[in-house]
Design a protein that fits this description.
Blueprint: H1 2-41, E1 44-46, E2 54-58, E3 87-89, E4 101-102, E5 108-110, H2 111-126, E6 132-136, H3 141-151, E7 169-174, H4 183-191, E8 197-199, H5 206-209, E9 217-220, H6 225-231, H7 236-246, E10 248-253, E11 256-264, E12 270-274, E13 278-283, E14 288-294
Parallel strand pairs: 4-6
Antiparallel strand pairs: 1-2, 2-12, 3-5, 6-7, 7-9, 8-9, 10-11, 11-14, 13-14
The structure holds zinc ion.
Zinc ion (ZN) binds near residues 136, 164, 169, 171 and 217.
Length: about 300
């Protein structure tokens, strides 16, 4: 009798397991497929309920690893999808080289970042500061590895853990003198944030960044983030923690209002955004999605 009860329990358990698997097969896989399709196009999808005032954006996991705000340091490595898709060899794009020099003809950088750099250089020119040079831009992993072996861990990061591997960072020099003395360096420290750039490794933040003061290394994060970081004297590490803690932030830069929201990534997540709203989405390269809305 006892044996019979035991067998019945076993049979029931096995049956339950099988049903569970079937349900996963039926529900799990198609959802995965759908998420993949939506992520590759990053399409804004109208809700089917006919509500025209909101759009629903499907967020795929890879969004965490791409965008202008991804954190890259010793702890957080570059993901393939985080590399900017518009990186070009600047020497072959003369239209992008306006008012500044290139250290050599191999320098590569995101076209968008180069355009913002060009606007910044133009503004500096009006202040009489006009000897800028890009000495390094995008580096692939082999180039980063070579540099790491040469410079050591205080000044360089291992391959895959450098912002230079993203195409969003550049080393800026002066054709006249060293950056910590050059008017170009001083001008940038004061003004770069207005153009979306931040001094990534400041003198007073080496304990947080883990990298020595680099007056030449600038990272593009875009507006309004660069301005907030400068105002609050925050590194990217601190700023991303701050957004995560605040969840929602409002700010104005040059009279333009911005709304910043942080969402912790979860499977099959969607984000609702007012229709016709202009926005930018970036991951933080950790676990979060940051949405920046502007008019
Ligand atoms: Zn650098």
């Amino acid at each position: 009798m006892k044996k019979w009860v035991f067998l019945l329990v076993v049979v029931l358990l096995l049956g339950y397991e099988a049903v569970q698997h079937k349900m996963e097969d039926a529900n799990g896989s198609p959802e995965h497929e759908e998420a993949k399709v939506q992520s590759s196009s990053s399409a804004a999808v109208q809700t089917k309920q006919g509500k025209l005032s909101k759009q629903t954006i499907a967020i795929a996991k890879d969004q965490v690893y791409k965008g202008k705000l991804v954190l890259v340091n010793k702890k957080y490595a570059v993901h393939e999808e985080g590399i900017q898709s518009d990186v070009v060899r600047l020497f072959s794009h003369k239209e992008l080289i306006k008012g500044f020099a290139l250290l050599d003809n191999t320098i590569r950088l995101s076209q968008d970042v180069t355009k913002s750099f060009g606007e910044m250089v133009e503004a500096a020119d009006k202040d009489g500061v006009r000897h800028f040079m890009i000495s390094s831009g995008y580096r692939n992993e082999d180039e980063q590895d070579e540099l790491y072996q040469e410079m050591g861990s205080d000044y360089a990061l291992p391959a895959g853990n450098s912002e230079h591997n993203l195409g969003l960072s550049l080393d800026i020099g002066s054709t006249q003198m060293e950056m910590n003395q050059a008017p170009e360096g001083k001008w940038l420290i004061k003004n770069a944030s207005k153009y979306g750039f931040v001094l990534r490794y400041p003198k007073d933040k080496t304990a947080i960044t883990g990298i020595q003061y680099e007056p030449w290394h600038f990272r593009y994060v875009g507006l309004p983030h660069s301005v907030i970081m400068k105002e609050k004297n925050m590194t990217m590490e601190e700023y991303l923690d701050y957004i995560k803690e605040q969840k929602n932030l409002s700010t104005q830069v040059e009279g333009i209002p911005y709304e910043i929201s942080y969402y912790r990534y979860s499977k099959n997540m969607t984000i609702s955004i007012p229709d016709k709203q202009r926005y930018d989405i970036s991951g933080d390269n950790r676990d979060g999605i940051i949405v920046t809305m502007y008019p």
